[in-house]
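sry for the spam today, last one i promise. struct tokens for design, 69 residues
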């Protein structure tokens, strides 16, 4: 359970970070067909960021979490 909680915290941390600092997402995600992540509505931005995080491998998510936070 501790590992699951730690993983959930890491995903939550990454989501909050990317939601507030959209410039940290790769250009393909920050410049999408809906427009710049900074200028689209919050529900759409949240969905795109969640999709970005969901596509990460475990190792990449851990590395990004360590790098960013």
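last one done:
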């Amino acid at each position: 359970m501790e590992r699951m909680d730690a993983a959930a915290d890491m995903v939550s941390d990454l989501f909050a970070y990317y939601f507030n600092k959209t410039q940290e997402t790769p250009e393909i995600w920050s410049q999408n067909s809906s427009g710049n992540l900074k200028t689209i509505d919050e529900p759409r931005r949240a969905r795109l960021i969640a999709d970005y995080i969901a596509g990460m491998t475990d190792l990449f998510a851990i590395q990004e979490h360590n790098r960013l936070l």
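The longest helix spans residues 2-20. ok im logging off now
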